[in-house]
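Progress report, Aim 2. The chain analyzed during this reporting quarter is listed below.
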Amino acid sequence: MITLFDDPRLNLARGALGAVRVVHDPLLPSRVLRLVDAEGNEFFAKQHSERERYVRELQAYLAWGAHMIGHGPRLVSQQDMTCTLLLTAVPGVRADTLAPGSPEEESGHYEAGRVLGKLHRATSVPPSGAVGTELAQRLRDWIARADRVGLISAVERNGLSHSADDLANTRMDSATCHLDYQPRNWLVGDTFGLCDFEHMRRDARIRDFARLEFRRWQAAPNLRTAFFAGYGQPLNDTEQRLLESFGAIEAVTALVRGHEQGDPALSAHGRTVLARLS
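Predicted structure tokens for the chain:
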């Protein structure tokens, strides 16, 4: 069991910053510490349990951090051996704590669209068939995992496989994508901030809207309108159909992750999306 005396996150922070104190934050996952240095500056120390996610998040800061200046944390230090990162804190309140239906919530979606649009435009690549082929294989892998543990019926498996075939035969543009772009990872304050870059990679641009589409916008279409007003590029009919296809990935990953993590809410979300696709 790791204690505060041998915690790699604290050791990394003390080596880079000197004396720090831990600030209790019930909204943070257990692998993240909120820290304050002697001058009152806030930081986060995060230890990954999976090296792949550590490498991906580190890559996000090193390769794409310049596109997020003023909107994302800055990498202060890292320790590869323990998969630990030390990051500056971005001021603001989490967007998922804003009152539903409030002007602040709608404004947060506008700013989220504006900032994501800047990232996508700065890193965009013209349409090709390679992205769809890769996503189709990824979906087939998730389908196989769900099928092995009996999470989907034969009819559902066939429907998901059909979506994989559609993706494999679709040309789509790509960009650097956050891939967990939703209010829990947005910080609303004087400036709009982002956090949690462990999923970030080059992917189909439209896919960065999937979690909002299937978790938020169905119940609040005004938030979709505000988001794309900020993004500056509304979806055309072809792109909207492509977004619907990404619901297959959203559904089956939620089913598998919900099963593996014992998370009934995530499993229920997967079922809801799967029913919508039927």
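Residues 18 and 37 are 7 Å apart (CA to CA). The mean pLDDT is 94. These observations will guide the mutagenesis work planned for the next reporting period.
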